[in-house]
Amino acid sequence: MKLQYLVILCTVFSAASISVAAQSAQELLDSVLNPDPADATYSSYSSQIYYNATLYNQTPIASTNFDRLEASAKLLLPATAYNYAAGGAGLEKTVAANREAFDLWRIIPQVMHDVSPQRNLSTSLFGRRLPAPVVMAPVGVQTLFHPTGERATAKVFGEMGLPYTLSTATSTGFADVAKANGNNPRWYQLYWPSDDDLTRSYLRSAKQNGYEVLVVTVDTWDLGWRTRDLDQGFFPFIRGIGVQIGLEDACAHEKLGFNPLAPNATAEQQQMAALYHVITTSRGISPVWRNLTKLRDWWGDRPIVLKGIQSVVDAVKAVEYGMDGIIISNHGGRQIDGAIGSLEALPAIVEAVKGKITIGFDGGIRSGADIFKVIALGADFVQLGRPILWGLALQGEKGVRHVLKSLLAEFDLTVGLSGCHELGDVNSTLLKAR
Ligand SMILES: Cc1cc2nc3c(=O)[nH]c(=O)nc-3n(C[C@H](O)[C@H](O)[C@H](O)COP(=O)(O)O)c2cc1C
Ligand SMILES: *[C@@H]1O[C@H](CO)[C@@H](O)[C@H](O)[C@H]1NC(C)=O
Ligand SMILES: *[C@@H]1O[C@H](CO)[C@@H](O)[C@H](O)[C@H]1NC(C)=O
Ligand SMILES: *[C@@H]1O[C@H](CO)[C@@H](O)[C@H](O)[C@H]1NC(C)=O
Ligand SMILES: *[C@@H]1O[C@H](CO)[C@@H](O)[C@H](O)[C@H]1NC(C)=O
Ligand SMILES: *[C@@H]1O[C@H](CO)[C@@H](O)[C@H](O)[C@H]1NC(C)=O
């Protein structure tokens, strides 16, 4: 190795998370340049990037900055797909509010704490120990963004031991996603069908394929006023993308009187089955609170989580109705234009129900520092949406891995640089409201 590289590398890696006490120079270099994978921390992803850049002249496969990541995905994707993911309801004021809410909080760093060499970001969610409080948000129609779609995201979240949530609007079926995900935690997100037979059938398939937690999305029983999609007349489900669960479901076949995936099925039958799935899962009739007793009967005592909570009243009701968790979310600003930013809802809900129910959060997380703010404000876990999709769009599985590792690395660094060793140290005393 050329001397100049060594000098650069030593400079770059001096901040790496390794113990320096009584270590020979050779040991120090080995532990940084060739770490045992078991010792590799999330934050060491930056060392890997600098190392590759210096030795192989190879920069990261996609930007580590969200805005630049999205800009490159936009260049690559068809306008319909890009707008479907980037867009929100109406004037997209809620999409913007989700971001603005993060800017209302700033982190107060604390220094010279005993936080190295390795932070402990692990947590327990619904009886599972996880390496970090990070979950894949349910995102439908992923083959719009890359042909490998849900398989790629489910594979990478599985590799990292972080839960993958399969959407009812998935373009890949229960079994195929389970196979890609392997022996790792996975959740199923329900768009609650208007027909109980279908609901029972979906829940049965979810259980059979090892999905452990039921996430019930309660804010999208009808589609919001999505101006970008309306202007393009773009609705992927009518085109047969994002209806795979309906196409594969045995109960749906019975109701339709045919199997749309049979080799002799006609194009009209496939179209009809696709429409049937869309209409039964978002026909414009909201489920009501007392309906939850049915889901509890069918799902049993496994965890049920309501996604799409923004009000304290609803959070308290979720506790009363025996739910195991809530996800504070406004669907990424895709449902009500002019609604509050999701992070604005968090502090009061934490105040009301923390400890009584598991609290998840999504909406506007674009960096590891954002994850830190959400955990500091009292959420038990976060969900990642659009950043992961842009990674998928750009590079499939590799892009998802890069974006996920980047977010985890920055989160890990932010925890450490703020003087925290584990999640229990990350609380709102480290934040200042602007
Ligand atoms: C393209 C796209 C598809 C989505 N599909 C679903 C879905 O099928 N089910 C669901 O509950 N939420 C869905 N969501 C909402 C996400 O689960 C999550 O609430 C949202 O993406 C969070 O906002 P963020 O991505 O801006 O951080 C979708 C979001 C996007 C961007
Ligand atoms: C570094 O390069 C190696 C070999 O090309 C590759 O396997 C690895 O994924 C790269 N890591 C990063 C962070 O780019
Ligand atoms: C990490 O922290 C969790 C609680 O936050 C604790 O239960 C666990 O034992 C810790 N792990 C280690 C290795 O210290
Ligand atoms: C397809 O084949 C099945 C079984 O052979 C039959 O019942 C069905 O009617 C056929 N469908 C069409 C559209 O021909
Ligand atoms: C919810 O309950 C109401 C009345 O009790 C019923 O009319 C409706 O069909 C139920 N909806 C679902 C999805 O179970
Ligand atoms: C917040 O966390 C710090 C450690 O980072 C701890 O010293 C402090 O007691 C905690 N405060 C509260 C209110 O929990």
From TrEMBL:
Residues annotated to bind glyoxylate: Y84, S167, Y191, R226, H331, R334
GO MF annotation list: FMN binding; oxidoreductase activity
Amino-acid positions noted as binding FMN in the UniProt annotation, renumbered to this chain: P138, V139, G140, Q189, T217, K307, S329, D362, G363, G364, I365, R366, G385, R386
Cofactor(s) listed: FMN
Signal peptide: 1-22
Active-site residues, record numbering mapped to chain: H331 (proton acceptor)
InterPro entries given in the database record: Aldolase_TIM, Alpha-hydoxy_acid_DH_FMN, FMN-dep_DH, FMN_HAD, FMN_hydac_DH_AS
Keyword set includes Endoplasmic reticulum: no
A Pfam family per the record: FMN_dh
Keyword Amino-acid biosynthesis among record annotations: no
Superkingdom to which the source organism belongs: Eukaryota
Stretches assigned to the FMN hydroxy acid dehydrogenase domain: 58-434
Keywords, comma-separated and alphabetical: Flavoprotein, FMN, Oxidoreductase, Signal
Family of this protein: Belongs to the FMN-dependent alpha-hydroxy acid dehydrogenase family.
Record-given protein name: FMN hydroxy acid dehydrogenase domain-containing protein
Taxon lineage: Eukaryota, Fungi, Dikarya, Ascomycota, Pezizomycotina
